[in-house]
Amino acid sequence: ALFDRIEASDETIGSFLFVNKEEAMKQAEALDQLQAEDRMEGPLFGIPMGIKDNICTKDVLTTCASRMLEDFIPVYDATVMEKLNDANAVMMGKQNMDEFAMGGSTENSYFKKTRNPWDTNAVPGGSSGGSAAAVAAGFVPFSLGSDTGGSVRQPAAFCGVVGMKPTYGRVSRYGLVAFASSLDQIGPITRNVRDNAKILELISGSHNKDATSKPGMDNNFLKGIDKDLSGMKIALPKEFIGEGISEEVEASVRKAAEMFESLGATVEEVSIPHTKYVVSAYYLIASSEASSNLARFDGIRYGYKAEGTKTLEEHYKKTRAEGFGEEVKRRILLGTFVLSAGHYDQHYIRAQKLRGVIEGEMKDLFNEYDLIIGPTTPTPAYDLGEKSDDQLEMYKDDILTIPANLTGMPALSIPSGLSTSGRPIGLQLIGNHFDEKKIYNAALKFE
Ligand code: GLN
């Protein structure tokens, strides 16, 4: 039934890059053969899923929506895929995204644009735009995205679904094509909070091939998730509802704050003074790491290879000139510039220091408060093409999601109403490190 739905509507939405129908049907039929008691072993028995196309799937194309990896078929599964396959979920296909996860509207895909199911003139957000749009359109009950500066939460907000960026280290990044390794995390996109908590439970856990994934954590989020909110202290930073935030979005957050108060929590206005620097710091750090991570795409080891080149240098140059899109090149150039002698101290080191300052300011708040709330995005989804010529405008929109990446803290976006034009608005809940359960608890009451 879902494949029929995808066939009927994904021509317009454009959420999938590749539909895995034959394989998925085979897998589903094999599951049907299992005896009742064996079925219980996979907690996601037969449940369909969509996967962002920067997560490695064994024997299935993984393009990162880039010409560079147009024909790339991984020989292994990402840890998260192993876990979901073990849970007996069925992969329906790979989903569109901004090339190498760089962007906020999915317009940077080499292959196609994705439209927002709520309003097909609007962008779905990005970079996990295909994943969020597919969940919103009812093509799959859940998807996995990746979030380096907001790429799970922002498209979830634009598409009216639930998206979680877990604590850095909660989920193994092994098999996620690296963008900025100190910021990247994989997270679930779902239609409701409980599903989200369940999927995160299943993909969490350390792995010996990702040294930054943390062993020994309690990865159970559903048990005790029903607690009432009396005594919970919530902080609302004034910078999150200040300049640049649309009135409708601010009103929606204030309404959410009232709702939390009516549920027994207290909400107080606080300040995170260095918020205004997070976008600059993020783009310096993320581009620096990207310039290093993307050095592996050299026309020899992976993917696209330019033709007719005579020297090694010419081969590198032509391959990368033809294989990467505009935005990816822009980031590589910015990153190599920032890391070069003379600029490193002035830009990179200062960005890293800012990261420490922001973490300190947020940690201080968590000494006193359980959660920080605010909008996920300054505005609801904008029209396709509206910002694609103005990178800086798009970068600035990431101000509310970036703090959780710079500090490694967990953050969830949950639908909190519609704008007057009928486009979804997202509420963001940020927790202290490894406090996902508290986030889910509050979100469940809000839902
Ligand atoms: N919009 C941000 C960027 O372009 C975030 C991307 C992401 O989280 N992958 O860098």
TrEMBL record:
Matching PROSITE patterns: AMIDASES
Top-level enzyme category: ligase
Catalytic activity: L-glutamyl-tRNA(Gln) + L-glutamine + ATP + H2O = L-glutaminyl-tRNA(Gln) + L-glutamate + ADP + phosphate + H(+)
Family statement: Belongs to the amidase family. GatA subfamily.
Organism lineage: Bacteria, Bacillati, Bacillota, Bacilli, Bacillales
GO molecular function, one term: glutaminyl-tRNA synthase (glutamine-hydrolyzing) activity
Keyword Protein biosynthesis appears in the UniProt entry: yes
Assigned EC number: 6.3.5.7
InterPro entries with a match to the protein in the record: Amidase, Amidase_CS, Amidase_dom, AS_sf, GatA
Quaternary structure and partners: Heterotrimer of A, B and C subunits.
Keyword terms of this UniProt record: ATP-binding, Ligase, Nucleotide-binding, Protein biosynthesis, Transferase
Domain of life assignment: Bacteria
Cellular component aspect of the GO annotation: glutamyl-tRNA(Gln) amidotransferase complex
Protein name: Glutamyl-tRNA(Gln) amidotransferase subunit A
Active-site feature positions: 52 (charge relay system), 127 (charge relay system), 151 (acyl-ester intermediate)
Occurrences of domain Amidase (ranges): 1-438
PANTHER family: GLUTAMYL-TRNA(GLN) AMIDOTRANSFERASE SUBUNIT A (PTHR11895:SF151), TRANSAMIDASE (PTHR11895)
